[in-house]
Amino acid sequence: QVQPVESGGGLVPAGGSLTLSCTFSKRTVDIRGWFRQALGKEREFVASITYDRTYTDYAHSVKGRFTISRDNARNTLHLQINSLQPEDTAVYYCNTVAVTGRRPLDLWGQGTQVTVSS
To answer: Are strands 18-23 and 56-58 parallel, antiparallel or unpaired?
Structure first.
């Protein structure tokens, strides 16, 4: 398996916006999504989207602020983040996601750091 590559992170003031991107090595018919891990905490599910983009799933903490999207032709996944909060500070990772249970299925990439300043 080849790791996905995440990008787009950075230092942003609270209330700001950011767009993250992820490039997968292969374009497969599957659910893909974002996870994040803050210092001292476990990785947690953030959002996912089906191949046909019909269904999306969001963690309660990000619902209404984050928007997930994908471009199957380019094999990319994106996360538009609005109204950033300090609690959003974490390393963000992308992965293939199981049909049920919000479980990651593939190898992790290096992630991209999002830091929200107060």
So the answer is: unpaired
Determine the 3-state secondary structure of 65 from DSSP: coil
Rounded CA gap, 89 and 102, in Å? 21
DSSP 8-state symbol, 61: T
29-68 pLDDT tens trace: 999 999 999 999 999 999 999 999 999 999 999 999 999 9
Q: What confidence score (pLDDT) does residue 1 get?
A: 61
27 vs 40: which has the higher pLDDT: 40
At residue 28, the pLDDT reads: 85
CB 108 within 8 A of CB 5: no
Give me the sheet containing 18-23, strands edge to edge.
5-7, 18-23, 76-81, 66-71
> Under a CB-based contact definition with an 8 Å cutoff, are residues 114 and 89 in contact?
yes
Residue carrying the six token digits 């199981």:
98
Closest CA to 83 of 12, 16, 11, 18: 16
Contact between residue 68 and residue 48 where contact means Cβ atoms under 8 Å apart: yes
